[in-house]
Each structure stands twice: as structure tokens, then as C-alpha cells.
Amino acid sequence: MPINLKTAVVESREQRLGTIIGWDGKASDLSQESAYARGGCEAKCGQKARRICELQGPFTQGSVCSEQMVECQAGHVPDAALIQHSPIGCGAGQVIYNSLFRNGLAMRGLPVQNLHLISSNLSERDMVFGGVAKLEQSIRDAWERHHPKAIFIATSCATGIIGDDVESVAIALEAELGVPVIPLHCEGFKSKHWSTGFDATQHGILRQIVRKNPGKKQEDLVNVISLWGSDVFKPMLGELGLRVNYVVDLATVEDLAQMSEAAATVGFCYTLSSYLASGLEQEFGVPEVKAPMPYGFAGTDAWLREIARVTHREDKAEAYISREHERVKPRLEQLREQLKGLKGYIATGSAYAHGLIGVLRELGVQVDGSLVFHHDPVYDSQDPREDSLGHLIDTYGDVEHFSVGNRQQYQFYALLQRVKPDFIIIRHNGLAPLASKLGIPAIPLGDEHHAVGYQGMINLGESILDVMAHKKYHQDIAAHVRLPYKESWLKQKDPFVLARKTSAGSEK
Fold first, then answer.
1. Can you give the pLDDT of all 508 residues of the chain as single tens digits?
2. DSSP 8-class letter at 20
């Protein structure tokens, strides 16, 4: 099932990959059920999507949606504009994403500016009579205010319900304005996990921005699919004589257009990079680097060696790997001694969590449990070298309590109680206050590149030392707060008991 760019609508992760948001057990059991590097069905049936028995809870306390991921992808292209064709409430995320955008530009040493985001501000009347006129006006407003080099249109649950013909508007305004006007179909109800929003943005970029007939290939250029984190990849790949083209966040429209001219495409997290990297290889012949992600010695070594193989720089890679091993090992030995006896817990996106667990185990930190916010049984390339969960298990061992859940507060208490970690590492901070109320400090990874590569192991180890120095503060909080749950729920040992009851009822 190749990526289909003939339609403007991206296929959801559930349809394409078999993504789930509810599961509980050992990491090795989930890997076996995913049947990825451990004997998949692709040779027999040619299908991408795997079907895993999924726990489905009776309610949800909150999450984010695909449209928000479009905000933080298409919205973070500095010389473009994003129209949120939605009620104004869908634009609430603009505040936090503007902060992330500004901080990201500052970390990269780029001119700091605000987002170019406009809401079409649909009302009840528009829900009855349609919102096409407001969409057209919003696009013209974006053009007059910002003169962007591309205009993205994010759909919403509301526009999906009323059926506005967004594509016809985009085609007409593109001809009028002379810049790409790109519909991104990201209605929140179409996918149960927000990661489909990454794919929606990347789908539109592949269809309408990437240069279709590139001239001469730039043999030293590598696309790095990342978010808005600090610039760690230029120094790493610069050692191999390679230049970095950061995409999608903080990239210009020209940066996105030249992706088809690159020598290769890599990422730091397959959740984020899978769709775009596979699309560039399929449609434009840009090789996707298929290797473990760059976390810990094993992953970073393999990642660099595969980049070197694809770009014909093997000697430079081996020299760099050797130098970095020698540089970081003395400090790592010190950190392992200082962190001895600690237990950590990871609560992040799926592939990212696999990498972080590996780094913790490189540091000698015990990891008995993890919560990943979703699970992709397979990635778009289907190449077993991209099986990040399998790599974790084969390299660093099993994880006894490995849970999949989309950030539910009511489950998190029991998840932490059954492993009792000394600290947690988290990307999306909504769960961190609950951990603090239990006396557990959190390391919020606002810079998602913090743990990448050889230096990343040292970075994360020192962050653990920093947060553990404030352990007493969180213990004091725990001694003076009450959790908003009944005693019967606090005594419940199974975080997924409600989902198991619901699933059992559904089967009946």
C-alpha cells in the first residue's frame, strides 16, 4: 500500500499502520503482537496495517487532535501562513505554539517572529449555511497581511461535518494569488491519535511544495525531519561533511521545496518522520535512512553508519564515532556511579520513548515501566531496521510494565504506583503535576533533541541529577495535597480496569 498523493486527504494512521491508543503488558509482548521485525505479514499479504487487540476505555479526560499537530507543523513555517478553518476555540493552541515557535527560532539563532495563523472564526450560522465565504476572506487576509510564499488550510471537525468544499477554494485562490494554497484535511474525529496530523501536513507538502522536477542533486544535503529543538544535527552531520536541511518546523518554503534534491532523509523519531521520509523516497527517489534512531551508543552508531553508507562517507563516520566514544565515556562512567540505584519512568510519544529508555539504561538507570501515548505496529517503509521497539528490546532488554494510553490522568496514578519511580521524563507536561503530587519530580523535555546522540546521554544524565536535587520539594508537595479521586480508585491496582471491562462488554 504505497503513499497515495493523488488525493488531498491523507490516510489515517489506524488505516495505514494499525495505530492503537490502549494496551498494557510487557514490551516484548507488544513487539510480538506487532509482528514487525519478528516475522511480519507483509511477505504473505502485502499489507501495512497490523491489527492488535486494543483496550478501549469508556471515556477520555482529554488529549490533543490532528488539527493541533498541523498548527505546530504547517504553522511553524516562517514564510508561510496557516488558515484554521474552524470555530475560534480550535485556535486556542496558537498561544502555546507561538511560544514554541519563538523559542525554537531563538535556539536555532534565527530571527524571532510570531506565527502567521488566522482563524476563519466559524459561527453557528456558518454551520448551517456553510463557511466558504469566510475561508476565502481569511486567505485574502493572510495574503494582504503577510504576503506568504505558501498558504496552508487546516480543516476542523466543524468543516468536516458541514462539508465545505475546501479544495475548490484552494485551487481558485492559488490561481489568483500565484502561491501554493494547500488544503490539509485534519478533522480531529477522523483519527483517534494526533500523530495523523503530522502526516496531513507532510502529505500536503509532498503534493504541492516539494519540487517535482529537481535539477542537480545536492549530494551533501540531508533532510532532517525534526520539531523545533536545538541545533544538534548540524554539528553531528557536519563531521561527515554533510549539510542539514531541517524540516518541517522552522523551515522556509524553499527549504521544503528542495527536499527532493537531497542525498538522503533522516529523523530523530519515526512517529514524526515515517510518512514524509517514505514519501520522499517513493515519489522523488531520495533515500530514507533506515536504521535505529540516534539514542545511546548502539542506536547512534548504527544511525551514523547508515547515513555514511547512503552518502558514501564511511571513513569519516568511523573516525567521528571513535572520537565521540572516547570523549563521552569518562563522563558517562561518572554519571553511572552518581545515578546508581535510581528508577526512571518515561511518558512520551512512542518511538521517542523507545529511544529514551535506551539512554536511561546506558546510564545505568532502572526502567520498569513506560507510558507511550500511542503505538504504531509498523512504520511506512516496513523496513525492520526501523523497528524501534524491537531495537530497544534486543539491545537493552524488556520493559515489564509497558503501557499505551493517550495521556489519561485517571490512569497515571496507578501506572506510577506499580513501579514507584524516582523521577519521570515527559514530553507533554499535562501529567507532570500529578507525579509531583506523588512526590515524583518530572523532567519536561521541551527541547526534544536533548537526549539525541552521544552528547545526549550526558545531557540526560545531568538533567536527572538536577531534578533529583529538588526531590525534597516534591515530597513536601505530596505531604500537603489530596488527589481528586475516591479511595476505592486509589486502591485499584490495574490502571486499565475500566477499559478491560468495556472491552469485555463489547466482545459479549
1. 589 999 999 999 999 999 999 999 999 999 999 988 655 444 444 456 677 889 988 888 877 899 999 999 999 999 999 999 999 999 988 999 999 999 999 999 999 999 999 999 999 999 999 999 999 999 999 999 999 999 999 999 999 999 999 999 999 999 999 999 999 999 988 898 889 999 999 999 999 999 998 888 999 999 999 999 999 999 999 999 999 999 999 999 999 999 999 999 999 999 999 999 999 999 999 999 999 999 999 999 999 999 999 999 999 999 999 999 999 999 999 999 999 999 999 999 999 999 999 999 999 999 999 999 999 999 999 999 999 999 999 999 999 999 999 889 899 999 999 999 999 999 887 889 999 999 999 999 989 999 999 999 999 999 999 999 999 999 999 999 999 999 999 999 999 999 987 655 554 4
2. B
Instruction: Annotate 104-126 with b (16+ C-beta within 10 A) or e (fewer).
Output: bbebeeeeeeebbbbbbbbeeeb
Strand ranges, E, within 301-358: 343-348
Q: Report domain extents, the chain.
A: 66-185
List own/partner pairs for 474-480 with CB under 8 A and 24 or more apart.
474/435, 474/436, 474/439, 474/440, 474/441, 475/439, 477/436, 477/437, 477/439, 478/436, 478/437, 478/438, 478/439, 479/439
Write out the E strands in 53-129.
Answer: 81-84, 117-119
232 with 453: CB under 8 angstroms? yes
Q: Residue 166 corresponds to which amino acid?
A: V
pTM more than 0.85: yes
Q: 16 with 381: CB under 8 angstroms?
A: no
Question: What whole-number distance in Å separates Cα of residue 480 and Cα of residue 260?
Answer: 57
| CATH architecture, domain 66-185 | 3-Layer(aba) Sandwich (3.40)
Q: What angle (nearest 5°) sits at the alpha carbon of residue 488, between those of residues 493 and 490?
A: 50
Where are the strands (E) in 55-122, listed by range? 81-84, 117-119
The DSSP result for 381-400, as a single string, is T--GGG-HHHHHHHHH---S
Please say whether the beta carbons of 344 and 464 come within 8 A: yes
User: Which residue, among 388, 383, 391, has the nearest Cα to 287 in the 3D structure?
Assistant: 383
ω into 452 cis (within 30 of 0) = no
Query: How far is 439 from 185, CA to CA, in rounded Å?
Result: 42
For 48-74, letters b (16+ CB in 10 Å) and e give bbbebebbebeeeeebbbbbbbbbbbb
